[in-house]
Design brief:
By secondary structure, the protein is mainly beta. It has one domain. It has two helices and seven strands, in the order αββββββαβ.
Length: 84
């Protein structure tokens, strides 16, 4: 992975879809420490909220779109290793 894709922030579309650095939809985000699963969006008259689940603790958190964009997250596609 090159530095540009490693540092690329996910793009949040107006409909709440998260895209990775290639423009593909991604349900998972990472900050290189934790893995988060995109659960959904909650429209609001005040601010659009994004629900993320921490894949380690299973905690669900709500993030305003502006705050989520400020975090250093990137979209990822988890893979399962093949059996040896």
């Amino acid at each position: 992975m090159n530095a540009a894709s490693r540092n690329a922030t996910p793009r949040l579309t107006d409909s709440g879809v998260i895209e990775d650095h290639t423009g593909q939809p991604s349900r998972y985000l990472t900050d290189e420490v934790n893995l988060h699963r995109f659960v959904g969006t909650i429209p609001s008259s005040v601010e659009h909220m994004i629900a993320l689940e921490n894949c380690n603790s299973l905690d669900l958190t709500l993030w305003p779109v502006a705050e989520l964009r400020a975090l250093r997250l990137r979209g990822v596609t988890p893979t399962v290793p093949s059996p040896a």
